[in-house]
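ARCHIVE RECORD
Type: protein–small molecule complex
Small molecule: zinc ion
Source of inputs: curated submission
Record status: active
Notes field left blank by submitter.
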Amino acid sequence: MSERDRYIKAWDDRRARLFMLCVAVVGFAFTVRSSPWIAGAFFIGAMVGAYRYYEFRCPRCDRHFLPFPRDQIFFDTGRCDSCGLAANALPPDDGGGAA
Ligand SMILES: [Zn+2]
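STRUCTURE (tokenized, with ligand):
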């Protein structure tokens, strides 16, 4: 697997984690009044989704992409907290042949 493929796979994983989080939050919002048990399941899903979203690691520096909040809330700036790599960025082309 090339470096470029590894980045693409990592960004796809990040989008999937964000999608799971959004589905769980929207599911919770739509079911909280009508069926509390299903809303509870969505709430747990949202917690797991938020944790997995924060657990995503930068494909360049392999550290947490988002800072872990300790005393304040951090919002997703679209850049790696450690190395500043922008989300969905690809590595510079090394000219290593077509694939
Ligand atoms: Zn990084």
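CURATOR ANNOTATION: Residues 1-68+76-87 form one domain.
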